[in-house]
């Protein structure tokens, strides 16, 4: 297939637009299975996260159908004359920013947190653990825990920064990746990660709090790169300071 390497600015959007061009030209007719993400990433000279996000952007706009366990296909009803819609910010860019910012926020919270702050984190953890929690409520419980950490620093600018980051996480790419990779193993990992972060903050251990937060976000990133709805897979925690290269 005549794929071409792309430039480094807004990579996932450029990859998606290149696929749209091939669909419109007839090079990729309806029903065509697109190359595997790793193969497509190699052809285009980009990372797998970029390709994953491009496929989500194409799915959201109706050009591609992502089928669990089998791959991505050109949609039978692909809008050949349609436009590639705005899928929101890159989920992996958000995670990279969170790994840096929230790691330092957690370390600061470990130095500044009062008993009332720890109690607030415990309440958020209890909310997140509710078995009946789904969808919007699950997101809000997760958000409450992370915002509670920022509030524990006593710095309103850090709290506002966290609010902005979590606002961007309502983007369509982040939401769809969350849906595709939602499973019980991921939920248990998140719960264990949250508990480790809480314990480090409560213990006043800034170094451990930073590492626990960075590990947590690296785990989210790992799940976002798994096949859709993959379950029972052991998370391979990455080096918290390294993460995934996007170039």
UniProtKB/TrEMBL annotation:
The keyword Zinc does not apply. It comes from the Bacteria. One of its GO terms (molecular function) is DNA binding. Signal peptide: none annotated. Keywords: DNA-binding, Transcription, Transcription regulation. It holds the Pfam family FCD. Residues 9-77 form the HTH gntR-type domain. This is GntR family transcriptional regulator. It comes from Labrys okinawensis.
């Amino acid at each position: 297939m005549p794929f071409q390497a792309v430039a480094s600015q807004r990579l996932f959007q450029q990859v998606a637009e290149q696929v749209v061009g091939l669909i419109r030209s007839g090079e990729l007719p309806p029903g065509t299975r697109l190359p595997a993400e790793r193969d497509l990433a190699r052809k285009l000279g980009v990372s797998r996260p970029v390709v994953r996000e491009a496929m989500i952007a194409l799915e959201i706009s109706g050009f591609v159908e992502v089928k669990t366990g089998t791959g991505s296909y050109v949609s039978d009803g692909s809008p050949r004359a349609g436009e590639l819609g705005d899928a929101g910010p890159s989920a992996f860019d958000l995670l990279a920013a969170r790994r840096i910012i929230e790691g330092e926020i957690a370390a600061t919270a470990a130095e500044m947190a009062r008993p009332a702050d720890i109690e607030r984190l415990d309440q958020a953890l209890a909310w997140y653990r509710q078995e009946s929690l789904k969808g919007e409520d699950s997101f809000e419980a997760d958000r409450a825990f992370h915002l509670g950490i920022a509030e524990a620093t006593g710095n309103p600018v850090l709290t506002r920064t966290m609010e902005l980051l979590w606002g961007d996480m309502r983007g369509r790419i982040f939401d769809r990746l969350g849906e595709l990779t939602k499973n019980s193993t991921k939920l248990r990992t998140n719960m264990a990660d949250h508990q480790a972060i809480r314990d480090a903050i409560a213990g006043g251990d800034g170094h451990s709090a930073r590492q626990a937060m960075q590990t947590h976000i690296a785990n989210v990133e790992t799940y976002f790169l798994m096949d859709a709805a993959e379950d029972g897979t052991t998370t391979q925690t990455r080096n918290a300071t390294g993460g995934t290269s996007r170039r």
